[in-house]
Amino acid sequence: MEYKAVKGTRDFLPLQMQKRNYIFNTITSVYKSHGFLQIETPAMENLSTLMGKYGDEGDKLLFKILDSGIFLRQEKFSAFEDEITNNHINKAASMICEKGLRYDLTVPFARFVVNHQNDIVFPFKRYQIQPVWRADKPQKGRYREFYQCDADIIGSDSLMNETELIEIIAEVFSKLKLNVTIKLNNRKILAAIASVIGHEDKITEITVAIDKLDKIGLEGVEQELLNNGFTAQDVEKLRPILLINGTNEEKIKTLSDFIASNEQGKKGIEELEFVLNKCKAINIGNIEFDITLARGLNYYTGAIVEVKANDVAMGSITGGGRYDNLTGIFGLKDVSGVGISFGADRIYDCLEELQLFPDEIMTATDVLFINFGEKENEKCLLLAKQLRTAGLSCEVYPDSAKMQKQMKYANNRNIPFVCLLGENEISNGTIVIKNMLTGNQQTVNQTELTEYFK
After folding, report:
1. How confident is the model over 220-273, as pLDDT tens digits?
2. Long-range contacts: 2-10, Cβ < 8 Å, 24+?
3. DSSP for residue 8
4. Cα–Cα distance measured from residue 271 to residue 75, given in angstroms and rounded to the nearest whole number
5. Domain enclosing residue 424, as ranges
6. Is residue 382 within 8 Å of 43, Cβ to Cβ?
7. Which three-class secondary structure state does DSSP give residue 306?
8. What is this structure's pTM?
9. SS3 label, residue 19
10. Domain count, the chain
11. Which of 84, 173, 345, 383 has the most CB atoms at less than 10 Å from its CB?
12. How far apart are CA 187 and CA 193, in angstroms?
């Protein structure tokens, strides 16, 4: 029998982990440079925390955890069976599941803020790097278990927070040398468009549909709208907005004319222009106002942002937005926040495809000491300890195996330097250092070993 990882999940080999940690460390370094503080939350949350926060589509993708205990008593089982028969899936699930795996890090963060509001200082700048789970159909760039790398600023209405998060996005991808476009929109604008075409009550249907424009095209979006109760006249009104193009300024001008009578829409445009102007002032390029950007999560209320890699066929690799009252659903009202999330797994796939991982991260060990025997081994252990104190990573080969086997180990592990310390070197107080990349060898005094590697 073959035992495989669950579909949509993966094992990670050491080299893959080195590459993943390169991404995590890059993101973490930028977060820290902006004063963000790290937190963690549990993998499991109560379903009452998760359900209803992501829209109907999101609720369907929640992994629910089966309760332990004596559920299968006849009277409970019969009630459960009735709900299944009547296609009340969510209600049936609630009868046997009280907990679920987190879908994202933002909703658990809102719960965290409410629970710990007296332990943190507002505005609170948090970052969190942990896995999330979605019962999605696995495909390229889409997994059932994947990591998110979140940053949020909560407890402040200032649009300077949006600007800082976009600056963080630009810094991270600059460090990763990944060419991207940062797409920006505002949910107030989307709500205004729904109002102008006479369907304020169907903002969710509109945003879910137009968010798919780049996947299913204009005809597909229009058909989805028709299937959701919109008339051909409604779709005709909406088409010019779906086809809007030009510079950011030209798009804003066209849109301003379309929603001129809507106060909420004008507010959204003001917020959008503020962020675009601030980003321009600090020389952040490649920002595109994209009216089709909707991000299907129900809790966004203002700015929404998404990042696309320019040189790889890949979905969104970063996303986020403003949420004005997410903590209100947990009892703490009028606390606004804004956040972003880097999709580490998709970023990994982009860097791998474009061969952008730096060579130096492939090396976990700097120096290998060859094992010639017990006496030589003891001296090698002392010298390795000395180098580790100086900040190098070192290994002493555990067995006095054949030289060829030990050198092959160094090659296979991409170890750049090998130290040879035999009986003669012990007598002379020297050590031979072989550069595995060039093949060159050099003999140095043991007392100069640390200085040599510096």
Report:
1. 888 888 888 888 888 888 888 888 889 999 999 989 988 888 999 999 999 999
2. 6/144, 6/145, 7/138, 7/144, 8/136, 8/138, 8/143, 8/144, 8/145, 9/143, 9/144, 9/145, 10/143, 10/145
3. T
4. 55
5. 364-453
6. no
7. strand
8. 0.87
9. helix
10. 2
11. 173
12. 10
